[in-house]
Structures are given as C-alpha cells and as structure tokens.
C-alpha cells in the first residue's frame, strides 16, 4: 500500500485491486438502481435537440469501430458515443444526485463504461463493477473539495466525473496500478467545466465530455502515455488548484467499507434539484386545491439560499433555461401538477399563462432552511391563504424513490422516445444487468426499433 | 459593437469581422515567424516516444476523413491530428514563448488550424490569418488573468490555448458572431491543465488537447450547439473561476491596433524558458574556457525565483524531466556547450559525468534578478573563479532570434527526423506559407519521405 499521503496512487491501487465479489449485495443493488435510472435518462434525453446538434458537430470525426449511442440510431466510436450518452443522460436534468456534493454521478461513468464494454465485448457485471468504482472515485474526490470547489463556480459533475470515467474505463481495460495512476492524473489535468453554462446545451456537454475525456485518459495510460504521480494531491494538482479545501481523508478513509453509491438519489423531477421541494409541494397543492392561475395573488416560498443562487432565472426563454427557474417550476407545478420532462419544454417555458403566473412567485431564502425543505404560501385574490410545508422533498435520502418509482420514471420518459413496449423490455434488461454476458445487448436494445433497420 | 462589458461577445465579433488585408505587414511577418518556428518544432518532436504513445492510444478512435500529422506517416482525423501536432510541437519544450504570460502561443492554434485547413481545402493565407487571430485571443485572455492564474498552478498554455484554437478554427469555418461566442464559451468550459504534469508526457498533451478541444468547440458551435453568452467574464465563467485577477481591458483595449504576435519569442534552447539565461551563459563559458567537469568545484547561479519554482528538479531520470532541472541544464551547457534537444535526452539525463556535475550546481534566487538575467560563478578545484553575467538571455525580446537563427533551429531539429534535404525544402515552403493555395501541401511535405510510401 502506498504511503497515506500518496492519494492518487492509493486510490489507483484500490481500484485495480477491487474484486466484484467483495462488494456487498446492498451496494451492488444500489449500483443497479443507478444503472437503471441512468439508462432511462439516456434514452429519455436521446431525442433532444441537444443530441442532434452534438452528433452533427462530432460525427464527421467518428472512428470506424462504431458502438451504440443509447436511444439513437446513429453509431459512433466508443469515445464519441460516451460523449453522447453523457449528454443525453443529463440534458433533461432528470438524472441522479449525490446529495453531499450535488454531483450527478452515473452520467460520466456509465456513459463511458457501457460504450467501452461494447467495444471490448465485456459483461454486464464488468459494467456494474466499473460503475460502482467510478462513482466511488468521483464522489470521494468530490467530498474532498466540496463545498469550496463548487462555490467557486465549478460544475462538479464534470470536474470529478472525469476521474470516475477514467477509473471505470481503466478497470475495464485491466490497467495496472502505475497506468491507473497515470489515468487519474490525465483525468486531473482535464478537470474542467463551469457553472456559467447552466441553462444552455453546454451544461449536458459536461458529463458527456467527462465520460469521453476520462475514457481517453485510460486509453492513453494503457498505451504507456505517462503522467504525474500525484495529479490529485500534488502541489500543482487538482485539489490545490481547483479548491481551497483539500480533505484527503474523504478520499481514502473507509475505502471499500463505506460506499458512496448508497448515498446516490434519483430525481423525481426534471430540473435542478434545489427546486424539488417547491415542485413537490406545489404538485400536492395542485392535487388538493386545484387553484386556477387566474385566482392566484401570489406564491411565496421560504427556501434554502441555493434556490436563488442556482435557479434564479426570472425569465427563461427555452426549456433548458426553465430548468434553472424556480419561478417557472413553481408556477408549472401549481398549474399543471407537472415536474416531469414535459414541464420543461420550450412550449412550457413560453406559455402565456405560466409566464404570467411565474411573475407572482416570490422567493425568500434563509440559511436556516435545509436544502430539501420548503414552506409554500399561496394567497388567492379572494383572500384565502393556503400553506404547504415540505420537510423532506420526495427523492431525498429521507424519501427515496422506490424501485417501482424508478420503473414509472423510466417508462414515462423512455416511452416518449422508443415507445412503451420497447421501453418495458429495456427496463427489464436494465434490472438484470448483472446477468448479461455482453453488456452491448442492453445498449443495442435501446436503439429505436423503427430506426434500427435504417441505421448504418 | 457589444457593450464594453460583454467581453466574450466583443472578442467574438472582432474575430468574425477581421480581414486579413487589414493586418499590418510587420504583424503578418511575425505570424510567419511563429508559423515557421512552430512547424520546425512539430517536425522536430514528431519522432519522440510521446507521439508514439499518443498515437497508439487514440488512433483506434480516429475518424475516416484523415489528414496529415506533421512529421509522421500516420494520418488521423482533423481533431486527433490537431492533438498530435500540439503534442509534437511542444514535447521538446523548444517552441515559442509570449514572455508576458509564459504562454507558448503557436502550438494550440497552428496545430488545429493546419489540420482544419487541410480538411476543408483552405489556403496558407487562411491559416496565417487564423493563427494571428488565435494567438491574439489566447494571449489577451492570458494577459487578463496573468500572473494570478499561472501562480495558482494552471498551465496557461493549455488554459488559454483552447480559446485560441476555438477562435482560429471558428474563423476558418466562417462562424457568425453568435456561433463564435458559443465557440469561445465552449472553450471556456474546457479550459484546464495543471502544472503538476511538468516533466511528464502529459505536459505536451496540454497544447495538443487545447488544439483538439478548441477545434471541437468550433465544430459544435457551427452545428448550432449553444453555450453561454459570457463564458469568459460571467460570474461563473473562466476569469472568475480560474483566476483572482480579471482585467478585461487587457482583452479589449487596442484590439486590432496592437498585436500580441509581435511579442512572441522563439526558444533557442529546448527546455523551460526560465533556464535560458543560465544555458546561454554556460555555453559561452564552455566556448571561452572549456573547463573539464572534473576540475569544477562549484557552479553558483544568482537567478529569478521562477528558476527554482519551475525547474527545481534535482535528480531528473528522463529527458523530459531534465527539461525542468536547472541543475542538469547548467551542467550540460557547461560541459557540452549544448542546450538543443540533444541536451535533454534520456542519455544526457542519466550520463554519470553530468549527474555528478549537476550536484555541484548551487542556485540562489532573488526577486531583484529579472527573468532573463543571471549571474554565473564557476569555481575550480585549483582555486580559480570565473564569472559570467547575462543581462538578457538570447531569445528574449532584447536579443531575439533572427530569421537566420530560426532557419538554423528549424534545420537542426527537423533534419534529425526527416533528413536535411527534405527539411530545407519544407523550411522554404514554411516561409512562403502565404503563397499556398492549399495549406495542406505544406503539411504533406513534412511527412518523412521514406515512410510516405508506406502510409495508408
């Protein structure tokens, strides 16, 4: 074992030495949930214009050993397919959240692991193992620098996801400890992505590029392309340059005995997670009171400061922008009872009734309110006051989505892209990921059946 | 024109509106010098093991529309060829330096511009125009955040080079102002690269990846993949997240009237520029006194603090590491009179005479010594003391390399890879870059003649 302070090397050795059979059943089960949720999101986002634009931009550069892009007819080389999978799994902002760090963990890791598994003919167990290790690496590195790193303006899903993808692909390639160390340092030197991009197509580019860059790091390291020994903890390495906080105990303590995958949560609503308490409450108000928009005098929220920091857009013009508007999300949830992808389309963002209603949303923030908590007060024009208190939003660790909830979420978004029957079949395969000798079979089953025949 | 504070937009508009004929002759001449120097370095580094390893890692993912990799027989898609050109042009640490920021400007920009020009059938003038604009963008962005950004640990060639490559390729693709703005923001969100990697293959990965990522940004923007409006100056954009200093006047003032290309310098020695004064002085001492290593008691340097900060490796094991060792470089220059690529090979780094001599090098640093200044005191075992004072190192703006010096530098390193005759022909073409209807002709002339017949 490396010396305690050799963080990059120690983490690399742990990944290299990990055996799938040593991972506890409950951790594996969490990994399967992450995989199922990721696959549903990647299919659900696959028909988004963002994916069309990305494919138009990069397909001319795709290599000839092509693999599946989840939910699409086009086939790309494994690195570009990883980019696309990462984009589609995140574009609806409907994926998963490691609540300690606001990392969306599966996207950068699974997006690369599945394409490399297809390229190399590897199994569903291999993918699940790589996914669990990648999530562990990215979330622990996130823990070591959060919150300073995030507060500075980094989109932590991209900055840490590249490590997760490197570890996952490195494991699939069977790198030794030296090469895995190089892969992690090659990931460190590619760690980037800015929160300024929120509300544009470039936000979902982040987990996609993290997947692609992390995989590239692993392939380069495999070829003997060398790198630093201490890309994470070195004086000019990731943690010192991209953060004012460096807590390496968060990376190395309890490694292999406590698993971050168990702390992953799955979004019930297709937008920034800090809005979820408000949507949860407004959907309940919609069901219980069905107050027409015209009768609403005001909607007042008392929420955590992150709500305005991250989702304070007052006048979103597009579906992607509306995911970062507490005003839109609140109005749409109260008026339509909807927080799913259909609540964040260009139509919804520009709907006159919703645009008018969102102007009546007032947000007061306080650090004394927890992130998964909100108080909503609706005042009607005829003088009524209706209050709703959400202690823990649905989807939080206190109220996690059940496997049946994940099924419903998967089928609802996937059906819009590949139809109900194919979605049901794909969902069944996703839960059984461990049984597949060729993980590629799952990826291939996500291709829209109508388009499959036409595909190259 | 955009409002003064819209930095990204204003810079994008300037690039889009620029006309080649409006650029002063002396600026164009500097651009040609940068191009010649870059091409010589890319050929000179093309046979380095770093390039072999990179090609082995990424070639399986190369697309089918292949273009030339400078100095190599293999052909890759334009994005991967840009990566390789960036690697080879920097791997010997022999390229160019924008002394205000320590950016090596041509690598990220020319490496992408030439491959995209070949892909699109563009001219030498197009490449030269794109190169000048790219250098301008990257160096001005560098000026806006230097030195804070560099001091923090960022390898500024990579962090700013990605903007330069995006601007250059965006210009070659004829992007409009909106798409150029997106391209610059897509560059901003990919801005990365850590100084921790110095001394490994990953250092030269930085300008390569900046070239590749900047080009990708431009191709995505061309396809309508949207991004932030203010990737540079936004609250969560490049300048605020990656620097504590933001001086946007450095970006927008005198744009189009003063050119950073005029401030580019060309390395006379194949290593970190802060060592150059010491090498310059020691080569002079070698010529003047020829003191055998065995007779040297000590070599004392009085130098700028960057010398130990950046090149303080006391016991380099490889050629790449030795480029960051003031101790090795000083010993080699005194003993062999050499600061060229042959001074920084694995052989030189482990040569017993040099290893022994470098232990007798003592470095005292002081902020009162300028970066291009050094005082060298050699004490011999028989009691002599020989002093050499270098006021401005050769290659600095006070003592720039002449065109004849650039010729010699080009031919010396290029001949080692493609032979003297082909090097002379290529050098002639490089000086005439403006005359080429197809810039690809220059790239193709760099392929080793012996291997060209074997190439796919």
Question: How would you explain this protein's 3D organization?
Answer:
Two copies of one chain form a homodimer. Chain A has 456 residues and is of the alpha+beta class. Chain A folds into two domains: 7-266, 2-methylcitrate dehydratase PrpD, CATH 1.10.4100.10; 273-390, 60s Ribosomal Protein L30, Chain: A. Helices cover 53% and strands 8% of the residues of chain A. Chain A has a four-stranded mixed β-sheet. Chain A has a two-stranded antiparallel sheet with strand order 1-2. The first copy, chain A, has a two-stranded antiparallel sheet with strand order 3-4. In chain A, strand 7 and strand 8 form a beta hairpin. In chain A, helix 2 packs across helix 4, helix 4 (78-91) runs antiparallel to helix 5 (106-120) and helix 13 runs parallel beside helix 16 (326-336). The radius of gyration of chain A is 21 Å and the shape is globular. Chain A starts with 6 loop residues before the first helix and ends with a helix. At the A-B interface, helix 3, helix 4, helix 9, helix 10 and helix 11 of A face helix 3, helix 4, helix 9, helix 10 and helix 11 of B.
Short synopsis of the structure:
Chain A is α+β, with helices and mostly antiparallel strands and 456 residues long.
Order of helices and strands of chain A: HHHEEHEHHHHHHHHEHEHHHHHEEEHHHH
Largest sheet of chain A: 4 strands, mixed
Tally of structural domains of chain A: 2
CATH topology of the largest domain in chain A: 2-methylcitrate dehydratase PrpD
Just give the CATH class of the largest domain in chain A. Answer: Mainly Alpha
Shape of chain A: globular
Structural class of chain A: alpha+beta
- Strand segment tally of chain A: 8
Percent in helix of chain A: 40-55%
Q: Report the β-strand fraction of chain A as a percent range.
A: 5-15%
| Order of adjacent strands in the largest pleated sheet of chain A | 6-5-7-8
Rounded mean pLDDT score of chain A: 96
Rg of chain A, Å, rounded: 21 Å
Report how far apart the termini of chain A are.
48 Å
Number of helices of chain A: 22
Determine the most extensive contact between two protein chains: A-B, 61 and 61 residues
Regarding quaternary structure, what we see is homodimer
At CATH level 2, the architecture of the largest domain in chain A is: Orthogonal Bundle
Poorly predicted runs of chain A? none
| Assigned CATH superfamily of the largest domain in chain A | 2-methylcitrate dehydratase PrpD
